[in-house]
Amino acid sequence: MTDVKHMKWWGWGLEGVGFHFEDKPEFAPFVKKAVGLDVSVPPVPPLSFDQLTVPPVRLSPSFEAELVAIVGEEAASTADEVRVVHTYGKSIRDLLRIRRNEIARVPDIVVYPGDEWEVQQIVDAAVAEGAVIIPFGGGSNIAGSLEPLVGETRSIVSLDLGRLNRVLAIDEYSGLARIQAGAQGPDIEEQLNAKGWTMGHFPDSFTHSTLGGWVATRSSGMQSDKYGDIADITRGLRMVRPGEIVELRPLPSTSTGPSVREMIIGSEGRLGVITEVTVQVHRQPEVREVQAYFFPTWKAGLAAMHEIAESDASPSITRVSDARESGFSLATRKASKGVSGAAQSVLMSVLKRRGWNLEEMCLSFIGYEGTASHVSYEKKLVGAIVKKHGGIGVGKGPGALYDQKKFDTPYLRDFLLDRGAAADVSETAAPWSKLQEVYDATRAAADAAYEALGVHGWIMCHLSHSYHSGACLYFTFAFVHGDDPIAQYEVVKQSIQQAFQDAGGTLSHHHGVGVEHAPWMEQDISVGGVKLMQGLFDSADPAGLFNPGKVLGPAQATPESVAALRAAAPRADVAEVPAP
Amino acid sequence: MTDVKHMKWWGWGLEGVGFHFEDKPEFAPFVKKAVGLDVSVPPVPPLSFDQLTVPPVRLSPSFEAELVAIVGEEAASTADEVRVVHTYGKSIRDLLRIRRNEIARVPDIVVYPGDEWEVQQIVDAAVAEGAVIIPFGGGSNIAGSLEPLVGETRSIVSLDLGRLNRVLAIDEYSGLARIQAGAQGPDIEEQLNAKGWTMGHFPDSFTHSTLGGWVATRSSGMQSDKYGDIADITRGLRMVRPGEIVELRPLPSTSTGPSVREMIIGSEGRLGVITEVTVQVHRQPEVREVQAYFFPTWKAGLAAMHEIAESDASPSITRVSDARESGFSLATRKASKGVSGAAQSVLMSVLKRRGWNLEEMCLSFIGYEGTASHVSYEKKLVGAIVKKHGGIGVGKGPGALYDQKKFDTPYLRDFLLDRGAAADVSETAAPWSKLQEVYDATRAAADAAYEALGVHGWIMCHLSHSYHSGACLYFTFAFVHGDDPIAQYEVVKQSIQQAFQDAGGTLSHHHGVGVEHAPWMEQDISVGGVKLMQGLFDSADPAGLFNPGKVLGPAQATPESVAALRAAAPRADVAEVPAP
Prior knowledge:
The structure is a homodimer.
Chain A: H1 27-35, H2 61-71, E1 76-77, H3 80-85, H4 92-99, E2 109-111, H5 116-129, E3 132-136, E4 156-160, E5 167-171, E6 176-180, H6 185-193, E7 197-198, H7 211-217, H8 224-227, H9 230-233, E8 234-241, E9 244-248, H10 260-264, E10 273-280, E11 282-283, E12 287-295, H11 298-310, E13 317-321, H12 323-331, H13 341-353, E14 362-370, H14 372-388, E15 392-395, H15 397-405, H16 409-417, E16 421-431, H17 435-453, E17 457-466, E18 470-480, H18 485-503, H19 521-540, H20 559-568
Parallel strand pairs in A: 2-4, 3-4
Antiparallel strand pairs in A: 1-2, 5-6, 6-10, 7-11, 8-9, 8-10, 12-14, 12-15, 13-14, 13-17, 16-18, 17-18
Helix pairs in contact in A: 2-5, 11-14, 17-18, 18-20
């Protein structure tokens, strides 16, 4: 078989890697307080693979032979474990379904093309056969962008791009790199770093997601303030369609009608298979620093981020956690790292003397990149704003820690699942004037959902990805689930999503739509907007062979379902902010 | 009638305003040298309006009555002069056709809706009638985005948005303003400035173009380095479609599938009528300065702009003219302004002593905005780069002059037309590594075309609109035409456009596509890209009522026509730059 790496079939990351709390003394008490869970109870691990009921392969022998002839024996598989790994992404619904042996439909064959010409042949063969094509990158999606539709009667081909993982060329004078779509984050950065370059795109899924997946789902990385969202970073691309390749040459900007580039970005496989992307790359900066700050309250932290965005400063990261997430971050430290021990005690006494309520305190990270003198200039600009809003700098220690463990959080979810708690994330973006309302409404919606379910739940938040006109709010929520965790999860998740819409936020800032967010598309981009997009999909793929049901799924929220969500989770009582 | 302002039916700008050379002593000798034209010969003014043959109105009485009932008697017109003003934009082809009484097809009625609901009713009435709708903003387009198709047998409604010219609301905390699509540049800036804000969007057409037009054609303004292209500035919008409004709420960023916002931007009326746009606005900066610099050569200027884009500096304008355009700029100065008289003589002797060839010297403008200390910091960063590339700062004088007269250039075209010379502009964008090749190939293509035509021609260029990965090159060309100026113009224009494509540039950076650039769409975004876009247009407008023939026109370049253009204007002999 090919040497393409895959995550665990039942959870995040590589086999043998997981979350451990034994070296984090404050973690167990924190979780006990937050969701009432005793993490020292013996875990119940997921079922073993042979306990799964894997649907049989539905594939005509001639089509299978044709695909094998294209990619070779080594690069095609109908093995159960391979097909199961390619069935879901890594949302909590995905993990719960796998753990409960709910896999109604899986791909019938997984193929690993070795070059673009093989992709073209696979696509053309599938179209001739009337088979469904689901492109697969790292499998990290958490919006349901990968799952086959239940009840799909046609053959399903999972087209895994994992072998297309090379940086093909760097145009050093233009700061552009041609990279194959199946390259994962570490593949890309290693190949670029070796020549002094970086792409600067670091989503939380970085270690296990691919360039093609980032483009297909409109990803954004934690340094987007400097490097841009993937839509900004993507300058050119190649996408295989039936019988032809759409080729968009790399251009800094162009005025050629509606943007085909921006039609393909976010298309989640519905228009074709992205094989190659030309991205902006930057010389690795002389200095890169993540500084930590404390703010006395969430409001103060939010106001400071707003003022930084409005100022002449241009940091690479702006991030502030609410008091709950700040407490969580401090509780997941190892005993000896970060703002720790004696130093922390001293700092806390100082803040108390200043009149801070330490329960309200918020942790912030701001990133700086450039020449040493530029970093120093930026820090001065930001420092003055932090001070104006009552904040205080606490140095590089916590920032360095954040930098090291930033990709570890997804492992925590499997740890909690083993112990009967469901945790997931929902994120949105909104104009600055609406962020407080989105925050209040979302917390109220989650709490109302927890109350309705009779569960001990938790929700926390950080602001990240600042723009001129607004920012992203990223929520993490968890609760100890009952016998039907998926139904309970859906109540919480849907309440949160509806709160986003009602308060002026979008259904997702950077996780894509999939099937999970599709019900809010009409509310988000209007009925007329959905019709334009549907027209594009239908004209490009009249037979519905390309990852059908994603982005514009069969399920749109109805007036009744929206009303029910609103009734269940009434909006927080917040001051009316004039619409822009 | 309504008080909506229009430009001259035969040329640029307002009646009574024009270009004068009497106070510019170096202008006449410059033009004599450049294109062999004696500007002191008596001008031949354009024909008078009553010499035009205006096609009759093709409109059913019932449809006319319906439209009049929607907007009122005052806001509908079938008068010849009104219809002619709404026929063309202001390209050289447009001006030549008007001057030669070539107006085969004009709109049959012009309506001026007073609000969005009237737009909706007009659209619905036209769709019911099977009439063509051409949205009209300021009428400044130079790519043929407005003209009715010759041979159009259906009724044509010109939908003039001029009465929708208000800033509706400013969300000061988010830096967002809701503005009606028919607002012209000065309308917008006056209303915003009164409250301390600016949109920062200043295309050359600023004084006569509208927000809706900017969005519909993917405009870019001269301060785009700081404020972004219109695609970046546009955060939300409303567009009227048959029976419904597409509403995109203002969001800083979103992950909702293919971008409907980016489908509408650049759509040139083919998807519907944009009525309202929510744009990013910025507080007016404390300091705004345009500094002038001289570089010893074009290559040095280009290299400096590249290094600025790669550096930590972030100026609001980066612009450098080639030696020819630098000479032109100096020749259009009034005798007493700018780098003038004695001071200039002293400077020139200094530069000569430094070994500069003054014939090769290039003029550059760099803009700075922000607090006083930030402007000073930025100037220091840029100053060091300029010096490294052998450039020299010459202060604020020429920059202030540039700022004052930046919107006057289009008047020069009418002045030259009165004297038998045709002048126009073509602009492109390309990665940094390809700019020199685009420049060389374009100059060679124009010169080859002039030679083939046996005319004395001229072409000059500036770089503007810098991005991380490339920049815009903006060419101005002129020649004394013969008896068939349109045919001659087409030879030159098409040679230039083909050179852009062949050297790695795009068909336009910010002028849109219209019918003029449509033949290069397949070369620019590939055949597959054109098909995706065509599918969008066809699904959104199956009857072809919305500004038909624009962006994807009837005429695509054929392999034969491309080969002919390449043969006529062989590529410059430049070093091969490795593709990214």
